[in-house]
Write a structure and sequence with these properties.
The protein is an alpha/beta fold. The protein has ten helices and nine strands. Strand 1, helix 1 and strand 2 form a beta-alpha-beta unit. It starts with a strand and ends with a strand.
Length: 243
């Protein structure tokens, strides 16, 4: 089976989108050689491609990176990608959010949706981005053969906002790199990290972006209230919030 994957997020420091795509491809590489993987990107820049290859290495013989021009998001998604997919005789195509709208019904089209927060909190999204999201997401969800939601909540939101058949939506929770957490870290390395950031007390660590939709003020307020409620607890009294 020929599997096509939109990997444009890889190498772009796109936080969650990049991590999701990178780990998806890495795990598919471990599934053996029964499938062929066509990894589509929009760059022809040698240095950028070198970064992508490094992040995905080792790349097996049944996978290849394909640069598809132009870099324009609109032209790439709706014209260039479908043309390349037909050329490569793809059986299954995976993207995130917005899908090609003109694609053979013979091709299984899968899109991953992380959240639809722009529907609930449009004030945090740029007007131009909001217009495209509100226009293209509903069309993409109807076009998709299957939709991956990363949580039951996201699935409910998709059904509620777009009236999509729940049977078409598959909840696949995000995983974690278990190998990363198995690594032994020396006490010296831990102390060096804490010293570099002046961390002398126990702390809670927030690792998300600082975008308004992440609601950092609510996190700070919640943390403050927690400390007030447990002010008699010595462990809580010294707790820090690190952003």
């Amino acid at each position: 089976m020929n599997v096509g994957i939109d990997i444009r997020a890889i190498g772009r420091k796109r936080t969650g989108d990049e991590t999701y795509t990178l780990e998806l491809v890495r795990r598919l590489f471990l599934c053996g050689r029964k499938n062929s993987y066509f990894l589509y990107t929009d760059t022809k820049n040698e240095q950028e491609l070198k970064t992508v290859k490094f992040l995905l290495s080792p790349i097996p013989s049944n996978a290849k990176i394909i640069s598809v021009a132009p870099a324009s998001k609109f032209l790439w998604t709706f014209f260039s990608l479908p043309k390349q997919v037909r050329r490569d005789k793809i059986d299954v195509l995976h993207v995130q959010y917005i899908t090609p709208l003109i694609l053979s019904k013979k091709i299984a089209l899968i899109t991953t949706i992380h959240d639809v927060s722009f529907e609930r909190f449009p004030q945090y999204i740029k007007r131009k981005d909001l217009f495209f999201l509100k226009t293209l997401i509903p069309l993409s969800l109807k076009k998709a053969s299957g939709i991956i939601a990363v949580s039951e909540f996201t699935k409910r939101e998709i059904v509620d906002c777009y009236n999509i058949d729940p049977e078409k939506i598959f909840v696949i929770n995000n995983g974690c790199d278990t190998e990363l957490f198995r690594k032994d870290i020396s006490k010296e390395a831990i102390e060096a990290f804490k010293s570099g950031y002046n961390l002398k007390k126990p702390f809670l660590f927030y690792v998300g972006t600082l975008q308004p939709r992440k609601n950092i003020p609510f996190l700070i307020k919640g943390f403050t209230e927690f400390k007030k409620q447990h002010s008699n607890n010595e462990r809580v009294k010294g707790l820090q919030l690190i952003i």
